[in-house]
Amino acid sequence: MVTKWFRENVWAAAAITFVRVYLGWLWLDAGWHKLTGGFDATGFLKGAIAKPVADHATQAVLFPNYTYFIEHFALPNVKLINFLIPVGETLIGIGLIVGGLVATAAFFGIMLNLMFVFAGTVSTNPWLLTLGFLVFMAGANAGRFGLDYYLMPLIRKGWTKIRAGHGKTDNTDHRGIGGKIVPH
């Protein structure tokens, strides 16, 4: 009942719009500073490898697969990471502020925050994760007062057209014995 209200109510949409714009500003600000300030993730990645998140009692690495990913993919491809992080943060911020593809922007914001936390950076990431989760859970209602109001019907229409072109819509009567509809 609460989820339905959160995803469909106009007052919930108004409230989540403020959260969405605030969160978008935080992402846009972080991305813009990285874009214009000569961002280089090399030191961060080396630090995440040298001192991974570990259990205080046993010193066992908590996210060994992520540390492996950083060491064997992210660090060797740091030029790609140096491009993706600032551009991604900026696009997430823009999407959230203008209300375009809000659920997608919130999802990728959540993913970036999780990656930063797994690398050992707490900072504002739990706060951003919480806000991102609220926006993501609001679904299409989060973009009701934004570009999604106009964009989502176009996307649905295009998606329906694509599915129809690939034979995904089937209007055939699937009645079995006794006239009951049976799945195909």
UniProtKB/TrEMBL annotation:
PANTHER family referenced in this protein's UniProt entry, alphabetically: DOXX FAMILY PROTEIN, INTEGRAL MEMBRANE PROTEIN-RELATED
Superkingdom of the organism of origin: Bacteria
Organism whose genome encodes this protein: Cohnella terricola
Main localisation: membrane
Name of the protein in its database record: DoxX family protein
Location of the protein in the cell: Membrane
UniProt KW keywords: Membrane, Transmembrane, Transmembrane helix
One family name in Pfam for this protein: DoxX
Gene Ontology, cellular component aspect: membrane
